[in-house]
């Protein structure tokens, strides 16, 4: 457990070498000579950590051993050499042992110091329920002999006789030397008190040393002043009384009480106050429902009557044009200004569904967007804070996905402060059944960040951990965790009975004094704040709550935290419009963009295939007048950038494109160092910024991140691309809970664009469907825009429409695969110059001849038009539904009614009958079909699987569809 530091089994060998060095420094190997010299000079930590020199214990030829005439050998495989594997080659007699020497004793003290740093947290007083840690977890820790040191003097070859001997302390403590008694006391106070620190898993020496200095330095855990102590207690009183007040006045109503974890309020209050000292302008919060109402009122300053009005049901969500949500899911934002301060901190708590940790990436993405908006290039002005539950933190995969984003170029936010409200239970599930690790935080060690465990009964310790976490975040730009180990006084909700499954735990909780009561006695004993004065303060606060309750009962209507009230969203309207939006671009502007996209920079060596790619594009644009899908996309991006909009595109492999179609980033193949060029960044000086990022292999967290970004940046085009459309399955929680429903639940709009490759080309069940039907099933109240465009020009115009329209709705695009390189799927430059996105595209066939009318959506159009031409079926017209939602019933009816001679009306799709747009269109056909006419279905039969795995069968199915459509 102590890494490379000394163990008892090293002592004999090292002691003998040290005595040889004392007699003659040149008689030992240079590595050992430097080690002992540093030790002699008082440079304990340099000796141990080897700044600039190699640890001699890792050197196989470690110098002569007295009496042997041969070098000592480090042999970790030899079972006769003890834990460190130290032996001597050719030794004929045992070495004399001197365990009384100062060198040996110092080495043992060194080992003990590092053991405290390494595992002290395992012996810290972290649990407010004292001995209540389940026996099986203790078994996990200690059942295997030798897994952990016991932190006794005997473990390190020391005894009580050494307690008054003076030893070197190393460079982290302010004193150069202390008695062993003082060292032990210091180590126990720092590492085994009510705060435990996990830091030695951090491999970065500068980070680790900075933490050690703050933990052990002169001001480490200095006592708080009386004013601060009173402030902590006031927050505890308010937190506790708020929960009691609701419990007694709204009996049986759910609120997901903070009781048992009230210390979160002084911790957050302190954090908000001290963020201002570091120049922080805004913080974005995410948390689950437990304690949310308390945080609203007592940490963020929301009027209590606003909460009470929701309990007495004065809140009518349809007034705001949506369904609303339960009170403990809602978001809230405010400008927080501490007493006596002129500057304020904007705090935004993001709305969150019951999918607990799903809000994590949303918070990170929104933070990144706000940082961009505030020009916070160093990511010091805007800080994300995530408040977790212990079971969710260890159990939900999105936590690990989000942690993985923390240091990635396209997703970093400068470090997140994570706070775990560790109830030691999840709903009714014990810790032993919810994770395989001892601490809920162990999963976070994968990214080498510090973890501070704090006992909730010690508010001063909890706040101290928060203070250190803030300092660390601002210093290093990395995540940090404060794990507040507390308990849940009531059940999962206020109607739940927790003692059914945890009788022992809840029997102890009933007897346990609250943190407020314990701290009250402490402050009274210290003479800081008398109990009588504390009771008077509590009485006044309850009186305030009663006043707020009366106002709520008299009809006070709660405020709505509406995105459109903020400066960023105030110029947008809420509702969708079917009116076309002009999106054409002048030819000279398109020429300018195209020239940049096909010109290689000087002294830049691209891949030969990429060079052919750019030459092909030049020919497309300037000679053939046939723009393909990816080129149309780049032209749309370029036009928006020139108009001042910035663009963010992210997803797996999106810089090149899954199908090598995009090539947004070019790489110099001859450069010895990575050297790239992004053409769309070099059109003109005052253009918008173009960002494109290959994401990690994550859909849930990355889509959540980009959605969060879109909340903060409505004037930027934000796109997430699935590698294949079906991969969107991994992000379904974000789609269902946020993208589709946030506007009606939480009055939060988004202009996020999702690009989902969709189309049946015989690639099997997993690479065919983007679940077109699933998005359509989520459509209502004009919440989404779902598009299945069939031409590059249509794609060009719909991307531009997303920014040019005066409202924002998520845009879901079924993007192509095989059509990316189809010569039939091309558009002229003139089509980009003129017009707009068309929700329905007519065939322009001779209406007098048409007897068969085919409606379709997406790629199948190209199969149908090929059949029509091959069969010379002049009696057939093919109408394309390019945007099934918001449903263009009026336009569709107009087109269909123009074919008055039509006798058959078919809906043809390549998807199975239970997929695609068929069910959606079939349900709405009365709104556009001529009276008495019905659509017939032509397509694959219903199937549990999206597509066949046989290419031959795929081809036969497609042939059958074509035959049925034209027979």
TrEMBL record:
GO terms for cellular component: cytosol; oxoglutarate dehydrogenase complex. It is an enzyme of class 1 (oxidoreductase). E1 component of the 2-oxoglutarate dehydrogenase (OGDH) complex which catalyzes the decarboxylation of 2-oxoglutarate, the first step in the conversion of 2-oxoglutarate to succinyl-CoA and CO(2). Residues 627-822 form the Transketolase-like pyrimidine-binding domain. GO terms for biological process: tricarboxylic acid cycle. This is oxoglutarate dehydrogenase (succinyl-transferring). Signal peptide: none annotated. It comes from Salinispira pacifica. Belongs to the alpha-ketoglutarate dehydrogenase family. Its cofactor is thiamine diphosphate. Keywords: Oxidoreductase, Thiamine pyrophosphate. InterPro entries: 2-oxogl_dehyd_N, 2oxoglutarate_DH_E1, DH_E1, KGD_C_sf, ODO-1/KGD_C, THDP-binding, Transketolase-like_Pyr-bd. It holds the Pfam family OxoGdeHyase_C. One of its GO terms (molecular function) is thiamine pyrophosphate binding. Residues 51-100 are annotated as: Disordered. Its EC number is 1.2.4.2.
